[in-house]
Amino acid sequence: MDELLESGITEEVHEGPTGWVSPLVAIPKADGDIRICVDMRCANQAILGEHQPIPTIAGVLQDPNGSSVFSRVDLKWGFHQISLAEENRLVTTFVTHRGLYRYTRLMFGVTSAPDKYQQIIRDVLRGCEGVANIADDLIIHERGEEQHDKRLSAVLDRLRKQVWN
Q1: Which of 36, 88, 147, 153 is deepest in the core (most CB within 10 A)?
Q2: Span 21-34, pLDDT tens digits
């Protein structure tokens, strides 16, 4: 919880009663750490989502046909890079032994999150040639090393310039 608060992914809820409170679920990980999850099943019934096409692996693998140089980029913290508008944070409120908290960033468990994330990343990368993404995994490809490196550099520059508020 402290890590989520310190990184700005969650915030304490100080205002009065809320109609949205989901339970916190702690899942033990194989390495002994704990994954914090929020059971969003009830809240998800009220969330209106936009359906976006999410590419399949088969579809992504068709595009690089003929390419011989590849790079894979994994976007760190995926959903947590996307800010939630202030008015949408209320629905992510969850309860802990320390009080009420809510997410300030997109989170796992929201049914519309994968579609929205895919749309945002696709929009950010629009115009970059030789790149495909499925969620937070990017594949950059080209036939030759020099052109590949230019494409990779363009993608990294685009990501660097993108403001993830």
Answers
A1: 36
A2: 999 888 899 999 98
Find all residues with CB under 8 Å of 28, minimum gap 6, and list them: 34, 35
The reported pLDDT for the residue numbered 156 is 93
pLDDT in tens, 70-86: 999 998 888 888 999 99
Contact 138, 75 (CB under 8 A): yes
User: Of 165, 161, 153, 163, nearest to 73 (Cα)?
Assistant: 153
Q: For the chain, give me the number of helices (H) and strands (E)?
A: 5, 8
For the range 56-60, what are the long-range contacts, defined as Cβ-Cβ under 8 Å and sequence gap of 24 or more?
A: 56/134, 57/134, 60/132, 60/134, 60/139
Q: Identify whether the C-beta of residue 107 lies closer than 8 Å to the C-beta of residue 80.
A: yes
- Say whether 104 sits in a helix, a strand or coil: coil
Which amino acid, one-letter code, is at 110? V
Report helix, strand or coil for 38: strand
**Cα–Cα separations (whole angstroms), residue 55 to 65, 80, 99:** 16, 21, 40
CB 106 within 8 A of CB 117: yes
